[in-house]
């Protein structure tokens, strides 16, 4: 590797503190589930779940960038790892969740009672 | 011939990909990254499938904070999320010790690498053990429920909406229940293994004897609470009961939708398997560190590579945690 290896223990503990803090916030929100967040929706998803997903992505970013040391890699490696995952996952989720929602509608609006 | 010639031809390190290092990473590290990409897509497929099924049954999906309420040595005290939060901490912390081991490896400090690797292994073992405990509680169940001929699940509550366990109200009827054994018949052998503590008739009789009991359906109202039926509706629904369900298995579970337990077992099981193999790989590398293999090699890159895998396991858990326990 071309980049030099300076000890970055300080940064590691900082990231640990950050990840722990985010987890604590998630757990507190998960236990109390504030109604104002849970029953207000934004683009089909309630605000609480938006927060959970954003915090998850935030944690994932720090794990990959700081712990897996992605920040020290060349940008060609960064892109070839991150972009396939992001785009394929978005695509996959789009198809599956849309289709799941459609089937929900079929169950709801017809007389089918079929649990599979 | 020309197409197969590599720049590493005259080099001893041909197996390691030579020195041309595409993307600025060594062969092993780059391949670890691409393995991680493929594994990330596998997990995305699983979590996506979970989302698909959940969207399909969005009105009847079990509530996670009613399912995972156990904490060690706190029997009977509902503690939603605490234990899984603790597990998350343990895994994040073992990720920290791993990255500290990698960091010490860069400075060629053998003892430090060994200590941090050891701590990482311990963290991984605690996590796998916790997951086993979580599975045990999930499989054992707490209250029990009844499944109807239509496949919906009925749970029991008292007039205050508090859950009531089957054992608290079901009566013992003097009927003969026989588990089929191989000497009788090989048909329906699975009945013998999964025979619940009560029959449907015993639950129905117990329900009749306790007029305060009500049935809670799987359906969620607009406040995300399970809808409790009236006494008359409850009796009508219970008449259709077909199975008594206690705990969880791959066919049915007392928490609600059948797919919920299937996905729980499959996804957390697959993740747990990753943690387990990560621990094994870490142990191998740990012994290599102790033996001085990387000291001789003048490079602790191997620790970095297993570190990548270990962080990935942590990364997946972050998503599993959100999808299964929070959302």
Automatic annotation (TrEMBL), chain A:
It is found in: Cell membrane. Its main location: membrane. Keywords: Cell membrane, Membrane, Transmembrane, Transmembrane helix. This is Cytochrome C oxidase subunit IV family protein. Pfam families: COX4_pro. The keyword Magnesium does not apply. The keyword Cell membrane applies. It is a multi-pass membrane protein. Signal peptide: none annotated. The chain crosses the membrane at residues 12-32, 47-67, 79-97. It comes from the Bacteria.
């Amino acid at each position: 590797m071309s980049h030099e290896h300076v000890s970055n223990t300080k940064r590691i503990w900082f990231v640990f503190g950050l990840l722990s803090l985010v987890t604590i916030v998630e757990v507190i929100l998960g236990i109390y589930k504030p109604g104002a967040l849970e029953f207000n929706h934004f683009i089909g998803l309630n605000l609480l779940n938006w927060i959970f997903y954003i915090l998850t992505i935030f944690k994932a970013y720090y794990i990959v960038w700081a712990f897996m040391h992605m920040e020290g890699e060349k940008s060609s490696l960064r892109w070839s790892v991150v972009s396939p995952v992001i785009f394929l996952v978005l695509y996959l989720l789009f198809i599956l969740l849309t289709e799941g929602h459609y089937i929900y509608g079929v169950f709801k609006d017809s007389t089918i009672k079929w649990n599979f | 011939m020309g197409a197969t010639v590599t720049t590493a031809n005259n080099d001893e390190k041909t197996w390691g990909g030579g020195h041309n290092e595409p993307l600025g990473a060594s062969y092993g590290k780059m391949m670890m990254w691409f393995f991680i990409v493929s594994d990330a897509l596998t997990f995305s497929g699983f979590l996506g499938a979970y989302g698909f099924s959940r969207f399909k049954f969005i009105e009847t999906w079990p509530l996670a904070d009613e399912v995972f309420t156990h904490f060690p040595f706190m029997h009977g005290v509902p503690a939603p999320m605490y234990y899984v939060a603790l597990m998350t901490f343990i895994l994040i912390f073992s990720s920290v010790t791993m990255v500290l081991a990698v960091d010490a490896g860069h400075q060629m400090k053998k003892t430090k690498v060994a200590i941090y690797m050891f701590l990482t292994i311990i963290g991984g073992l605690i996590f796998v053990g916790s997951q086993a405990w979580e599975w045990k509680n999930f499989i054992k169940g707490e209250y029990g429920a009844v499944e109807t001929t239509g496949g919906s699940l009925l749970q029991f509550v008292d007039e205050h909406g508090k859950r009531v366990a089957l054992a608290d109200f079901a009566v013992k009827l003097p009927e003969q229940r026989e588990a089929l054994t191989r000497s009788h018949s090989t048909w329906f052998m699975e009945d013998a293994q999964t025979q619940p503590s009560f029959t449907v008739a015993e639950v129905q009789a117990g329900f009749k004897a306790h007029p305060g009991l009500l049935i809670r359906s799987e359906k969620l109202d607009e406040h995300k609470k399970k809808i409790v039926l009236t006494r008359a509706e409850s009796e009508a629904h219970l008449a259709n009961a077909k199975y008594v369900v206690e705990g969880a298995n791959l066919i049915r579970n007392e928490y609600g939708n059948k797919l919920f337990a299937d996905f729980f077992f499959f996804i957390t099981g697959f993740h747990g398997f990753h943690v387990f193999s990560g621990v094994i790989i870490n142990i191998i590398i740990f012994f290599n560190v102790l033996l001085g293999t990387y000291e001789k090699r003048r490079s602790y890159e191997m620790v970095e590579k297993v570190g990548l895998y270990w962080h990935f396991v942590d990364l997946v858990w972050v998503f599993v945690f959100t999808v299964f326990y929070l959302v």
